């Protein structure tokens, strides 16, 4: 069942307003800028192949507003690449790449961290004319601080939109990466 547009048009602003009320605490707020880099493997539904073990580059950036010792809000971008050798990719050299904007919540308490968020963008092979769409991401890892620097290795699962004008597809990627963050405000 599809939700009518009128309902969605009110739900998102109310959700964001409520979330900003929970997150806004200017005295304790910390702002981080983070760059992540690593490797990703994945699969694309149009290839009829399972998870491919042909790694590609995964890079991301984000700005995080952490308002308490536990909860934060982040926004940024991610670019994910992975190769394909099975299914319809047999005997062809195909690389899938995707660019997505990201928005989500982060939970951290000392060392362990977790992120859950939404993606907007598309993932496909060269030449695919992608329609933008919604995806999701979830990640976890450990964070280590050294002064204003924060190092955060982690594992991130992403389900990307990969739809074109003629196909409704999705892609899945699994990234192992390292984030290096700088605390901008204490």
Number of helices: 1
SSE class: mainly beta
The CATH architecture can be named as: Beta Barrel
Choose one word for the global shape: elongated
Order of strands, widest sheet: 1-2-3-4-5-6-8-9
Contiguous uncertain segments of 5+ residues = 1-8
Helix/strand order, N-terminal first: HEEEEEEEEE
The beta-strand count equals 9
* Largest β sheet strand count, sense and barrel closure: 8 strands, antiparallel, barrel
Oligomeric description of these chains: single chain
Rg value = 18 Å
Structure in words:
This protein has a single domain, classed as Porin (Beta Barrel). It is 10% helix and 62% strand. The chain contains 1 helix and 9 strands, in the order αβββββββββ. The protein is elongated, with a radius of gyration of 18 Å. Mean pLDDT is 80; it is low at 1-8.
Topology diagram in text:
Elements: H1 5-23, E1 30-44, E2 52-66, E3 71-84, E4 94-108, E5 112-125, E6 133-142, E7 144-146, E8 149-161, E9 170-185
Antiparallel strand pairs: 1-2, 1-9, 2-3, 3-4, 4-5, 5-6, 6-8, 7-8, 8-9
Summarize it.
By secondary structure, the chain is mostly beta strands. Helix content is 10%, strand content 62%. The protein has an 8-stranded antiparallel barrel.
Brief descriptors of the model:
186 residues; mainly beta; 8-stranded antiparallel beta barrel; 62% strand; elongated; disordered N terminus
